[in-house]
Structure formats: C-alpha cells, structure tokens
Amino acid sequence: LAAPIVARYLGDFGADVVKVESSSHPDTLRVGTPYAEGTGLDRSGYFGAYSAGKRSFALNLQAPGAHAVLRRLVERSDVLVENFAPGVMRRLGLTPEVLHAWNPRLVAASHSLQGQTGPRAPHRGYGQIASAMTGWYDLTGEEGGEPLGPYSAYTDFLSWPILLSAILVALEERDRTGQGQYIDHAQVESSLHFLAPLLLEQQITGRSRTRAGNRNDGFAPNDTFRVAGDDEWVAITARDDAEWASAAAVLGLRREPLLDTLPGRKLHEAALDVAIAAAVADRDANELVDALQAAGVPAHHVHKAEDLFADVQLQHRGLFRRLEHPVLGDHAVIMHSFKISGCEPGPWSAAPCLGEHTYDIARNELGLDDDTIAGLVAEGVLA
To answer: Which residue is catalytic, options 156, 260, 290, 360?
Structure first.
C-alpha cells in the first residue's frame, strides 16, 4: 500500500502516474478484497481506492525486450517508485545505476519492509509483519491478553508520508543540481517514528509499556462503553477532575470523594469502568454523546463504515468522492485531510483496468508504431 498511496497523492496533485504492471504477476492489491460482485483483476475495491487517477501500462518486466520499452518510459519520467522485495529490481537488471544511465535526472525510490541493505533486507513481509517487528502489536490489546494488531497493514498507512516527503525533497534537489537521486526507504524504520514517545520513555526511565487496553496514564475514565442497540459503543474520556464531575452528572453516578482526583480514579479504574458501563447500557448513543459533549466531556459514538459515509462533518469536508468504474461501477474513494486554497485535487478518474492504457502510452507517448506494438504483444512483452 505505501508506495501506491504515494503515487496516488502525486497524481492527485498533478503528476501523470503510469502504473507499470503485469497480468502474469498481478499486483497484490488487484486480488485484495473486497470485490465488486465476483472476482477478477479489475474488481478489487482495495485496488480501486489507491490506484484512482492512474493509468495502467501492462509490461512484463521478465520478458525479453521489456528493457527497451521501459527505457523509453524512464527517459520521459521524473519519478520511478517500486515496491518489490529487495533484490527483485537487481535480478531484473534495473539497478539505480542502469536507471540513472537512462535518465540522469530521475528520482528513483525503492520501498521495502527493512530496506535494501543489512542482514534482514531479504526478509519479505507485509504491514502486519512490520507491525509486529516495530512493537505495535505488543502495545495493542487488552491488559493481560494477547497482542491484537491494529486493523490492516497498519505500518503501510504510517510510512507512506515519509516516503512521499523524501521524494519531494529529492525532486527539489534534482531541480537545484540537475542530478537525480536514489531513495532506499524502509517501512519498519519510518514506522518507528510514530512510537517516539514510548521509545523515549524506555530510554529515559527504563519502563517498557505493553498492552493496557484503552487505559491512559493521564486520563480516567478513558474507554469505550456498550450502549443500547446492536453492537453500539461510545468512547468517553475525562481529562481532568472537572470533566469527570461533569461526566458523572450526565451519567447519573453518585459522587464519590475517592474518585474526585485522578490518582483515586486510576486506583479504582476497573470498578469505575464497570459502573459507567452499567450506567450507559440502556442509553441511546446519540443522546448520550450529545449530553456529554454539551457538558464539555470528550465523547463520541464508535463509528462503523456506514456511519462514516453518513457523517455530516466528513460530507461537508468532501472527504469521499464518487467515481464511475466500468467494472466496480459507482464507488467512493477517500480524498485528502487538508485543503489548499485555489487547488482542487484529483482523482478525477477511477482506477484503471489492467492494461487499459497500454496501447495509448506505447503509441502516442513512447513513439512505437502499430507493427512494433503488435509484435511486442505477440511476444508477451505488452498486454
């Protein structure tokens, strides 16, 4: 996910992104669930989310003759991002030296689990593995329980902004010096930046945190509580004594002097959570949240996916854009969490079907004539 997200962001803000892919070794995301009615390489909603706005160029990099075609594309490009396991590009004969010989101004970026060098560089894995390696899985889960990883390939979603930043910096350096750059990006290393507070705590105090559910040293209560309805929950936090007093009043809980201060609430936190759970079990989620927020207490309904699409704030911000795809049909893609004045970013088109733009790119941008293209198709180089 990390490198495809980077490419989509570049495309959303003006880059022409050509996705080089092969039908013989399909992109993992193309076979990732959820599917739109059946299976197939053009039916993945996962792929549709992160490849919107791109063009698909079906080129089998293992076929003889592929280098000559790819070279034409590299010569016309500013950035090449690859997401293979370390060693794949070298085995394909596509080292940074070769790429820069074709285009000295190219910014080439390799994204992998642990980087291109070092004793564990060949180790293959996805975000779930990186979440375990970086310590995220040790931190998420109930106190005393098993590690429960954050949803999906969590570190993919953490690491891509750092890769994108590195590419933008390299482009500035390229524009200043005229020389291209090579970026070796390790997902594990960039994801560790988001654990900085815990790493600092361990270094300074020697304390190593582990699973504690939703507990927080500075807040009590700080948890999710089941309310009326089918699997409906509300998150409630009291950041100080005044917020707790307000929360207790809304919840109808009797004031207990031993709970008036944070140390007291932390000491009796388990019993406090049980009391709150009993107080809210029959409450309507929206009514409870409105009352708590009106009293100045941080609280919100624990949203499901359908709630997010109906959220009035997200609708106002235009976070979801609907696109039309020949196979997926009408579907939503997530937009951006920031606004830039005078700029309306993409994507404006849905993710491509595999090889959808191969002929157009080969003929009109790479300058190959129809006979040459037909020959490359027959030889299995293009599809």
So the answer is: 156
